[in-house]
Specification:
The structure is a single chain. The chain has 10 helices and 14 strands. By secondary structure, it is of the alpha/beta class. It has 2 domains: about 50 residues; about 325 residues, 3-Layer(aba) Sandwich (Rossmann fold), CATH 3.40.50.300. Helix 3 packs parallel to helix 4 and helix 4 packs across helix 9.
Length: about 375
């Protein structure tokens, strides 16, 4: 039910003109909610802009990775990329995450190369950990990822415990309580030039003019909208002429078998008939990636972003689907974080292989300017 409701909302949220009278009535109700939401965020932002609300400062550089929309721009891979850049500069860095989709209890995860260490006030089952912090920890060896709603408190703990030079704030553009030294804002290449509508009518967290606060605007998944890239850059620079505007893609780097762990080049998917399983912010982008790899997508079972899978969900996916047989089921790394413990008892009984697709962010343009901006944070 939640899947169908989410999909129905998303279709309405990204359409300016509803196709039916019934949907038009629903949109009018949502529009009223958007008016109230706009007023609330306008008052809140004005309070910070005019100094009526104070912002907390941490004793290290803070770099925020965020966006204007509800999911789907690729923040997690961008966090990975920025942390790697800082590590190459010999900076001691940690990550602060809200941990959406997991337990509300604060905790810390760190990967030592062999196992994932979890530190919390009480035991947290693996299924209660949020997918993004675990994904980041596994990709960034010995980089602590601190999870909690109070990012200032978590940042203070991190600076004290690890003598940090920098903190990367995951999904932090709207978290204005914390002072930051660099705001990197991600924009999906398929976003309309005028932007979508505000929540709950549309997927926008803030109006597009909020980009005036950004230091770097990164257009992600640029390969999905080459034709409009020039116009989108011009639009963004008209809003914030001082910002660095860069472009990036999410490049598939490997496919690995969930049973054997064998890793192969993504080109092995060419010509293979596959089923897809995902619960991410941009399922269309995942499907497009497989199509660009020349895989034949037979079906795509989609769940809402950060969906907490059940064992029945897993069993349903593994049942034979209608139509021609497939050669494999392909899922994302973030989905596998949530699926791994559920799937473990059944992996040896799979009727077809389960493959996990790994992707990384690759900067296409503006990387030199981005690097120079990071260097200036630590100059002097």
């Amino acid at each position: 039910m939640w899947q169908s409701l989410h999909d129905a909302w998303w279709r309405l949220a990204t359409q300016h003109r509803p196709p039916s009278f019934g949907q038009s009535l629903v949109c009018r109700t949502l529009d009223a909610g958007s008016v109230a939401y706009r007023l609330a965020i306008s008052v809140r932002n004005a309070a910070y802009d005019w100094g009526l609300k104070r912002r907390a400062r941490l004793p290290c550089r803070v770099i925020s990775i965020g966006n204007l929309t509800v999911g789907g721009t690729g923040k997690t891979t961008c966090v990975e990329l920025i942390v790697q850049k800082l590590m190459k500069r010999k900076r001691r860095v940690a990550i602060l995450s809200r941990g959406f989709g997991g337990t509300r209890q604060p905790y810390q995860v760190i990967w030592d190369g062999k196992r994932l260490g979890v530190t919390a006030d009480s035991t947290i089952p693996p299924g209660e950990l949020a997918d993004e912090p675990v994904w980041l920890a596994r990709h960034l060896e010995n980089v602590p990822v601190l999870v909690g709603s109070n990012r200032y408190r978590a940042g203070t703990v991190a600076c004290t415990a690890f003598s940090l030079d920098a903190l990367v704030l995951d999904d932090g553009f709207q978290h204005r309580k914390l002072q930051r030294d660099c705001d990197i804002v991600l924009i999906h290449s398929r976003m309309p030039l005028s932007g979508w509508k505000l929540l709950p009518r549309g997927p926008m967290r803030e109006p597009i003019h909020a980009l005036r606060r950004a230091h770097v605007i990164l257009i992600t998944k640029a390969d999905e909208a080459w034709a409009t890239m020039g116009a989108l850059k011009e639009r963004l620079l008209s809003i914030n002429p001082q910002a660095i505007v860069a472009t990036a893609v999410h490049a598939p780097v490997e496919v690995w078998d969930a049973v054997s762990g064998k890793r192969e080049d993504p080109s092995c998917l060419e010509g293979r008939r596959v089923g897809l399983l995902s619960s991410i912010g941009d399922p269309e982008g995942f499907e497009s990636t497989l199509q660009r790899l020349h895989a034949l997508v037979a079906w795509h079972r989609r769940y809402p972003d950060h969906y907490r899978y059940t064992q029945q969900d897993w069993l349903d996916v593994m049942k034979p689907q209608g139509g021609l047989p497939i050669g494999a089921v392909v899922t994302t790394e973030k989905d596998w974080v949530r699926l791994e413990s559920l799937a473990a008892p059944f992996l040896n009984e799979l009727r077809v292989p389960l493959w996990v697709l790994g992707v990384r962010m690759k900067i296409l343009s503006g990387e030199e300017e981005l690097d120079a901006r990071l260097d200036r944070l630590f100059a002097g």
